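Pasting as-is:
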Amino acid sequence: MIKKAIALILITITVFWSFYVLLPSKISNIDTPNNAFSTDRALVQLKEISKAPHYLGNEAHAKVRDYIISELEKLELKTEVQIDYSMSQWGNLSKPKNVLARIPGSNSGKALLLLSHYDSNPHSSIGASDAGSGVVTILEGIRAFLSTGKQPKNDIIILLTDGEELGLNGADIFVNKHPWAKGVGLVLNFEARGSGGPSYMLIETNQGNANLIKGFVAANPEFPVANSLAYSIYKMLPNDTDLTRFRADKDIDGFNFAFIDDHFDYHTALDTYERLDRNTLEHQGSYLMPLLTYFADADLTNIKSTEDYIYFNVPLFKTVIYPFSWIIPMLIIALVLFIGLLVYGLKRKAITVSEIRKGYGAFFIALLVSGGIGFGLWKLILIVYPQYNEMLHGFTYNGHTYIALFVCIALAICFYVYHKVYNVENTASLLVAPLSFWLLICAIVAFKLQGASFFIIPVFFALLSLFVVIRQKKPNLILLALLGMPLLTIMAPLVKMFPVGLGLKILFVSCVFVVLIFSLLISVFGYFKHKNRLSVVFIIASVWFLISAHTNSHFTQNTPKPNSLIYMLDTNSNTAVWATYDDVLDAWTEAYLTKTPDNADLLKQNTIGSKYKSGFTYTKKAPLKQLQKPVIDITHDTIVNGKRQIAICITSKRQAERIEVFSDTTNVFYSATINGVSAYQNTNSEYVFSERLNNRLFSYFVTDNEPLDLIITVPESQETSLQFYECTYDLLTNAMFSVPDRKANMIPKPFVLNDAVVIKSSVTIK
């Protein structure tokens, strides 16, 4: 009984340990030596940067840029501002203003570039984490580095881009237009997609990662959080960072360092100085300083590699790496050992066919029931709590409670199911099913998702456990718990990482991971006669977490409801409507949309761009306001060889911050130039804008009130219709309206056009 208790305690401690080592437990204070990174010093700068939303083009944006320049100049660095127009492949046009500085090295090799962005997301995000945290990490890191008085071998470039939130526009103009770009050998990029949690290292490369990961290990950061599975998944997602432009456009390699927890703060008014996790900022600094020191003197001309490495982090050993070429040999060795142990166990009668059958039944029942409940229960929760759908992040304020709930449900199922097949001598037989399934997974990922091939490591330790339970009728459970430690330290963090990274809709994956982990630990739990009692414990815990989640399901000042409202005036029909993206209206939006709003089908025909392709849900007739309409001039109209070239200038009289341009998909465009930038053209089409969604051509994010100059080439006989949506973010401050501030338990909904006064104008060229 004592050994069982110690084994259970060891397993529990190991789980907590696997999470504890992911983050620094304390931060460096203001009295930290000058040659070391200080989180407290970085926070002083962050407080200045994150006083207000500072999206491209607004007044606070210019103030943040000036502050960054002044901080760099305090370090006696010569700065420059790069300004140019950029059109992203997402169809977002802007005029970013990048801030650059350079520290000369003693050699003439490739330069090391430190990268983050200083613009916040329009229009309400404060931008403390995303990416004020990255800016101050670099500012403080460079200050500490320079205070050593040592000249680096490589030049060090500091690049704080603009327009990242709009389409990586600042990175685009640097990579493709700045002369320094061709001399960059490696990039360290600091980002955020939340306001807390560990910072994950993700490699960006077009080739093999071998030299990059070897350099990372050699730099020896204290709290590495990295695995090759995360980057394999990252490459499949539509998420990009500034570093993507370096890799995709100029084949420049780099490292991303991004934290992703507390995702509900991302791009919202909650992304504040106060809500940024201080330990997370310390974690960013703990990456920068050793990597800056190492790569400042490394040979950056030797970064490229044709070989890939598996990598993952575990306590004590930090980052473990080995080449992809080991994947198949390790899999074969594991298969041979498994078959050998199976034969050995059958000969010793420690394994029997009848008990193996029971093991397969228990394993698949636990797996299917846990996964099924995980999938179905979240669907049910969304029905019971429809307000969760207003959080477009896919991660609710009580999301961590739901993770704990689903983990407890899966554990309760596992303990109950395996209790039903308890036999004092069948533990070895019960291990056969999960081992065979794990080996199947390892075989699949070896060919389809090689980054996950480190899953074979827990299998080897489980095979060793199988050997022990075959050899001994009463094995030492403490030893078996120790053999389970690699499994827990490698896999337990993934249970949380998946729903945090991909949203709560992935909770069923967490349930599956729990079953996979538990099933290999049956080498320990198989000797627990009363597993049903532990099942009851986890059922009680599940009920507690369910009650806790329900208690915290409503919106408060600390967990506010995202909502949206815009006013749209159609100058052609001389009508106006209130519109929203919300599914569930509240007192603030109902004041304008009423309790019986109209369907927004007409507005959905032209869906104004949003991160998750969200469309308007409801509208209601609104009073007409005498707004200053934009001036639309056709300044040029000629026909040459059957093609008609038309130049249009749109000038805002309201200091517009955004202009959206649409055209029916029956209209085709041979070419388009917007403010001197050519529109993206798919190589498989003779037209531009050939793959537009919901009629959208492009978005123009305005700087310095510069007009939109559009030159299009269309078929001579085409009747071309264009719709322009001129937007300002002043619905709550415009004197022509009386829209009150939101209540304390509400915030502007992110990812969509919000708090906007929109004028729609249409032009038809016959």
